[in-house]
Design goal:
This protein has 247 residues and is mainly beta. It contains 1 helix and 17 strands. The radius of gyration is 17 Å and the shape is globular.
């Protein structure tokens, strides 16, 4: 399959993330997972420096939360449907950290709540389980609250010691995930009985990208306060469409 680059951020500038590409989610309501951070639009918590996007979490009181961090998204700026995504990132260390590279269907903003909108987790990681990467799909019929979602745990020694490329190929009938160019799992449409409709396979619509560093919560677990400040670093984000000339 051939792909053509259609959108990217190489982080070859300084200061705040490019506002033509990214917006911030702000708040401290726990985000459905009883998380402990308050997401802010603050250059201390999210900035570009030395060719990298840095999302940094601090132990700092903000309203009802004991930590601040950042969550940025491309909603309203850029969405994709099918294609390839590549994100090169270095994961934070320490118990309580929960960085993620993920997607939500645009329909969540248009009347289809989670999980009907669909969720693609290109990469999730919790510091309490070092070296374990998680790749998942969530739908109304198959999601983590029902404990029946499509998910794959991959263990790679020293995964938080270096920059690693996380990628996915998203086509009409499958979504496949890669780590440094090696396929780790492929989820195929039709493997589940409800894949014939939007409750089982909502992945035929535009999705937007989210980058965030959560702290604690139902999965992030116990927080080690000695690790702060702690950072999730991203070297690039590249999105490709399927090249129409694949003959």
């Amino acid at each position: 399959m051939k792909y053509k680059l259609i959108w990217s951020d190489e982080f070859d500038y300084q200061g705040k993330p490019d506002s033509s590409k990214w917006t911030h989610d702000i708040g401290g309501h726990g985000w459905g997972n009883k998380e402990s951070q308050f997401y802010v639009d603050d250059e201390r918590a999210c900035y570009v420096q030395d060719g990298k996007l840095v999302i940094k979490a601090f132990k700092e009181k903000k309203e009802n939360c004991d930590y601040i961090s950042a969550k940025i998204k491309t909603y309203g700026k850029f969405s994709m449907q099918y294609g390839r995504v590549e994100v090169k990132a270095k994961l934070p260390k320490g118990s309580g950290t929960w960085p993620a590279i993920w997607f939500l269907g645009n329909s969540i903003k248009e009347g289809s709540p989670w999980p009907l909108c669909g969720e693609i987790d290109l990469m999730e990681y919790v510091g309490k389980d070092p070296n374990k990467l998680v790749f998942s799909l969530h739908t109304k019929a198959y999601n983590h609250r029902l404990n029946n979602h499509r998910t794959k745990v991959v263990e790679i020694e020293g995964i938080s010691d270096r920059f690693v490329e996380y990628a996915m190929n998203w086509e009409k009938d499958y979504i496949e995930f890669f780590v440094d160019g090696e396929s780790v799992v492929r989820f195929n449409r039709g493997e589940r009985s409800l894949d014939h409709d939007v409750t089982g396979w909502p992945f035929d619509q535009p999705f937007y990208l989210i980058l965030n560093l959560a702290i604690g919560g139902t999965w992030g677990g116990k927080i080690d306060d000695s690790i702060f400040p702690v950072a999730f670093e991203i070297e690039y984000v590249r999105v490709y469409e399927i090249d129409g000339d694949n003959t």
